[in-house]
Write a structure and sequence with these properties.
Helices cover 34% and strands 18% of the residues. Helix 21 packs across helix 25 (698-713). It is an enzyme of class 5 (isomerase).
Length: 1152
């Protein structure tokens, strides 16, 4: 049952005006503005007469209501044609004294054109009570209800496609659409965007027919006006737009353009050994000759394929071909140069050569646009994207190279882009003609000569995206069987073109229309079977009888949508992405879910440019851990997938992205990622719970929820920069706070406001306000209680009485068990007013033999507020699982995430068998490891259940207890005395280390290894264990290590926050006993500048005596395992390269 939208439009009153007679004011063949009724005449106030093309089509536009297709050269005043169509509709409403609401839809291929028309039409039409609204990708519009109260809607095909997919819930709105205007309909020739426009126009017509058939007496006709560049098959467009109804079309020759454009195609030799990039560079040497030959000392616009190419071309012209400028023009350019921010632009502006592209700041672009329109800039090089955006006409237009860089290499420009670039030639106010020169390879000359004369037909690419659009119509129930699928297909431009050129669309050659339709039907069958194979649709037998074996399956089979198909249509994702999501096993950690996201087809719109690879590779492999992404990629950044991963990780990691264009693309990637991850959450949570092999989807769903949190907040879930979420704290301030150890909300709340002001260099009461803001954040707690009959109660509460409810927080509550099954899930939970209880619910366990259940509260839009709870269900099973885990699991699969509400150790990755319900309880496995260290006859690797890649010592001994003596410079250290009291915890030390407090050089020390006989249980320290994950099975590198602090009595242990690896590790080992987990690379293994491999050395128990201790005769300060980066420099060694005891050489790890 449809729920109709009831618009609240004001009642419109019209004032009657006498209509001018047809042809009034006509001069020759040109029609006069006097023909327009007085209330609408101001719309055309910029001129007194319509041009030749506008005059030619005026009768069918202004005095009839038929749909219309006009093919005319770019720049022939086609905007006025749309304005005449809108005036015709308004005149009809006035004549009918219609006081209700109505809608006019303008569809343009890109947002820039919508913005241009919106700015031009808003003021014109508001004078007569017609409100305009721009509804593009930048608009947060989810449904018709969100549409503003307006009459003229300007949108893109993609946006209108997503909106009209919900038309059945908004039938009344669709009835209000009286006029649809399609600009640049030749975009159908674009393989990616053309199918979207084709599908949305066909849907609008089908909706009109469906609603018209339902309503009594039918509905008023919906008029369609489509404008195209010059093309030979305008009749095909008219047949598609009209679909059996009367449709007029005009195919206006290039010769009738108001400002003639002389087109030239210049071919240049390019041998097979010359790359496209080198060919493009070589064209720079031809540019100046073409400018001199064709410009006539008037403004010239040079279109280049990339942003870098625009700057390269300008630099060549500046350095080799200086211009002679008048003093007035030179002074004007100097004034502009003082205002721009871009250094290169500032340098070249006074010469008269300027580049222009989207990578420049908005202020710089505006200054250049204004100066070019004023005629102060003689030559401007810009990207081809400008042709579809800002209107900057020039006398001469040069298309330097007809190829553009894509992920699949250099490809030819889309024909629509060539048309747009050519259309910029000729300035209506100043020129009687324009010139366009296409510079291309010699073998392409004939092709572009045909294109320039408009002899290349407009084709359909819907057959390449048929799965997505068939599925969306099945979801809308426009298609219910094969017969209705063919009815829909006949309404497309693909059908019209396939009848005339079937081979072009992969169909067998045939002249008979019936045979072509049978071939199209077979194409539909193939696509529908593919959708059914991946569970996007269901094909079932109809109730009336028949089945799969019935003749002509369209009579025996019914098509219905499935969950996956509905998600595919709702979120507008591609069929390839659905195939990718179907590969989810259910056990994926965060890294794998993030990687899967980057492989989605929706990111294929981005291009990995050569000019951007330097910045991307620096983010991927920086020399410092603080400026490197969390999950570095192997090799160099070469494709879109790697680019997406790198940029999104840079955003999450608060890393600066140098290039403005990459910043803009990163913002778009985050927006696309948010849409995709919302789909992934529903895809996993609502879909099947997993097969018997994988046992459920709990881990994958938890990882996806965390990934959604990262995309919403633009931070990693364990980010130290979480203060960036607070008002008044940006990227810089968040970095300063993180550098001083303020990495959780609890630490911020407990910090003296004056200290915060000192860190941020702010005046009071900034610190007080910041602390107060943090103290108003919610504190969540989740409780799981096992009741009778294995019913588990889930309670989520908000514990902070000072919580400010103006802070919007949305939660997801997830409970899963040890078998990876999802026991309970509730998404988008809001905090209700007036109570501390956010959620109170329950569920019944289906399997009472599971060991534990874990509940997680994940905030959708905040990092640092999550919490979790573990409930033991079956103690025997839990103990057995712990024992099994400690003996069989590999380090890579033992990682999990824990979250604490106070921010201490948020989302820390630790080895799972060391993680228990009570973090204060020492893991027994740790005791076993320490006990093993006291037995030099056993092997360390065996003591840790063979989880190490290598042994820490020769096999006959666990750790060599040999003596050695070496004076060495240990590097920088913190200001703490190495003989710190045993009460000092590692948490305190790491906090102070992270605050960058003054450091001092550590004096050279005599290090003496105690003998076995001197080791006792009461020794001054506890031995540290290094667990090295297998390199070939290790996940992508993380520049972090997770620690456990252990008191000397082995009676307490607690996790502490991750500390980035570096020189301080050795200092921490010297000060406090640790249990370290990580990989060899984390402890300093890296390649030297000369390509040699650095070595990491693991030693046995040792103790050191500080210089102060030797003077005072103090005992050794601490004992532990020493880990050394093993640098090759002469004066940067902790121990000699060769240390022997009993003829045995110290073990070295070659870690490459």
């Amino acid at each position: 049952m449809e729920s109709e939208l009831q618009p609240s439009a004001p009642v419109r009153t019209w004032t009657s005006h006498p209509r001018p007679t047809m042809y009034s004011g006509r001069v020759g063949d040109l029609r006069s503005v006097d023909e327009i009724a007085p209330p609408f005449r101001h719309i055309f106030s910029e001129f007194t007469q319509f041009n030749e093309i506008q005059s030619l089509v005026m009768d069918d536009l202004l005095y009839a209501d038929k749909s219309l297709v006009v093919s005319a050269p770019t720049g022939s005043g086609k905007t006025v044609i749309f304005e005449l169509a809108m005036v015709r509709l308004l005149m009809n409403l006035e004549d009918a004294d219609y006081g209700g609401d109505f809608k006019m839809i303008y569809v343009a291929p890109i947002k820039a054109l919508c913005a241009e028309k919106f700015n031009g039409w808003r003021e014109k039409f508001e004078r007569i009570g017609v409100k305009s609204a721009e509804v593009t990708g930048d608009t947060d519009l989810r449904d018709f209800w969100d549409l503003p109260d307006c009459n003229l809607i300007l949108t893109t095909p993609e946006k209108w496609n997503s909106v009209t997919r919900r038309w059945r819930q908004n039938v009344q709105f669709m009835r209000l659409i009286k006029l649809v205007m399609i600009d640049e309909v030749h975009i159908l020739n674009d393989p990616n965007r053309g199918p979207v426009l084709e599908a949305v126009v066909s849907r609008m017509r089908n909706i009109h027919r469906f609603i018209g058939g339902e309503s009594e007496g039918g509905m008023e006709p919906m008029r369609i006006i489509a404008l195209s560049a010059t093309a030979p098959n305008v009749a095909d467009l008219a047949a598609w737009v009209g679909h059996g109804n009367t449709t007029c079309f005009y195919n206006i020759a290039e010769s009738r353009r108001p400002i003639k454009i002389d087109k030239y195609v210049q071919g240049y030799y390019c041998d097979t050994n010359t790359s496209s990039y080198r060919f493009d560079l070589n064209l720079n040497y031809k540019l100046f000759d073409i400018i001199v030959k064709y410009s006539g000392n008037r403004p010239t616009l040079v279109f280049c394929s990339t942003r870098k190419a625009t700057e390269t071309a300008i630099n060549h012209l500046v350095n080799n071909h200086p211009l002679r400028l008048t003093p007035d023009r030179t002074n004007a350019l100097m004034e502009i140069a003082e205002k721009v921010q871009n250094v290169e632009l500032k340098r070249c502006l006074p010469t008269g050569y300027v580049f222009y592209h989207a990578g420049m700041s908005f202020a710089d672009r505006s200054l250049v646009e204004e100066s070019f329109r004023a005629g102060n800039i003689p030559v401007m090089c810009c990207t081809s994207a400008l042709a579809m955006g800002v209107n900057l006409p020039a006398h001469l237009v040069i298309i330097k190279s007809t190829q553009m860089y894509t992920d699949y290499g250099m490809e030819e420009y889309p024909e629509s882009s060539i048309f747009q670039m050519i259309g910029r030639a000729g300035r209506p106010q100043f020129d009687t003609f324009g010139v366009a020169v296409i510079m291309t390879q010699r073998e392409n000359v004939q092709k572009y000569e045909r294109l320039a004369t408009g002899s290349i037909p407009i084709e359909s690419y819907l057959h390449e995206h048929l799965a997505e659009h068939l599925n969306s119509e099945i979801v809308l129930q426009t298609i219910t069987d094969l017969a209705s699928a063919m009815v829909w297909l006949r309404s497309t431009f693909l059908y019209v073109r396939a009848l005339g050129a079937p081979v072009r669309y992969g169909l067998p050659a045939a002249k008979d229309k019936a045979q072509i339709e049978r071939n199209l039907e077979e194409l539909c069958r193939t696509v529908l079977n593919a959708l059914e194979k991946y569970s996007a649709i269901a094909i079932v037998a109809k109730d009336q009888g028949g089945g799969e074996g019935s003749d002509g399956g369209d009579d025996g089979l019914r098509l219905s949508s499935t969950l996956y198909g509905r998600l595919m249509a709702h979120y507008c994702i591609s069929f390839q992405t659905v195939k990718l999501l179907r590969k989810i096993k259910g056990t994926e950690p965060l890294l794998e879910m993030f990687t899967l996201l980057t492989y989605c087809q929706e990111f294929a719109v981005f291009k990995c440019r050569n000019s951007d690879k330097r910045v991307l590779n620096e983010l991927n492999r920086s020399t410092t851990a603080s400026s490197t992404i969390r999950f570095p990629l192997r090799g160099r950044i070469q494709n879109t997938t790697a680019m997406v991963s790198c940029l999104m990780q840079a955003v999450f990691g608060n890393l600066p992205i140098e290039h403005p264009s990459l910043q803009q693309e990163a913002t778009r990637m985050i927006a696309i990622g948010r849409r995709l991850v919302k789909c992934m959450v529903e895809f996993i949570s609502l879909g099947p719970r997993g097969s018997a092999e994988d046992g459920g989807v709990f881990h994958a769903l938890l990882s996806t929820l965390v990934l959604r949190q990262c995309l919403e907040t633009k931070l990693w879930e364990n980010s130290p920069f979480l203060s960036k979420q607070l008002r008044g704290i940006g990227v810089v301030y968040a970095g300063q706070l993180a550098a001083r150890g303020k990495v959780s909300f609890q630490e911020l709340a407990e910090t003296n406001p004056r200290e915060l002001e000192v860190i941020l260099k702010k005046a009071p009461p900034f610190g007080n306000n910041l602390v107060e803001t943090v103290r108003k954040l919610p504190i969540f707690e989740i409780e799981l209680v096992l009741k009778q009959d294995y019913v588990v109660e889930v309670t989520v509460t908000q514990q902070n009485k000072g919580y400010d409810r103006q802070v919007s927080v949305r939660l997801s509550v997830l409970v899963g068990d040890t078998s990876n099954e999802v026991l309970f899930f509730k998404d988008n939970v809001e905090i209700p007013p007036g109570t501390q209880y956010i959620l109170q619910d329950s569920f019944k366990l289906q399997d009472a033999t599971v060991a534990t259940a874990t509940g997680h509260v994940v905030c959708l839009n905040w990092v640092g507020l999550d919490c979790s709870k573990v409930l033991v269900i079956n103690e025997e099973a839990a103990a057995a699982a712990a024992a099994k885990t400690s003996t069989t699991e590999k380090p890579r699969t033992r990682k999990s995430a824990t979250t604490t509400n106070n921010g201490k150790g948020e989302n820390k990755k630790i080895t799972e068998y060391y993680r228990k319900q009570d973090p204060k309880q020492v893991p027994k496995e740790a005791e076993k490891v320490v006990e093993t260290l006291k037995k030099p006859t056993e092997n360390v690797a065996k003591s840790t259940n063979d989880t190490c890649q290598i042994d820490a010592a020769p096999k006959k001994r666990s750790l060599d207890l040999f003596q050695f003596s070496q004076k060495s410079k240990l590097g920088r250290s913190s200001s703490f005395n190495t003989t710190a009291s045993s009460d000092t915890t590692l948490l305190e030390i790491s906090n102070k280390l992270s605050r960058n407090e003054p450091q001092r050089e550590v004096p050279r020390a005599e290090q003496t290894m105690p003998s076995k006989e001197n080791l006792t249980d009461n020794d001054s320290g506890i031995w540290d264990v290094v667990e090295i994950l297998p390199k070939e099975k290790s996940p992508v590198q993380e520049q972090r290590i997770n620690y456990f602090y252990k008191a000397p009595t082995l009676q307490a242990a607690r996790p502490v926050k991750s500390v980035s690896t570096g020189g301080n590790i050795i200092e921490m080992l010297r000060k406090e006993p640790l249990l370290l987990f990580g990989r060899p690379e984390d402890f300093g293994a890296q390649r030297q500048k000369d390509g040699s491999k650095r070595r990491v050395c693991l030693f046995g128990v040792f103790s050191e005596v500080t210089r102060e201790g030797r003077r005072s005769g103090a005992a050794p300060a601490k004992s532990g395992v020493m880990i050394n980066g093993g640098a090759q420099q002469k004066n940067d060694r902790v121990c000699p390269q060769n240390v022997r005891e009993g003829g045995q050489t110290r073990k070295e790890l070659d870690l490459g």
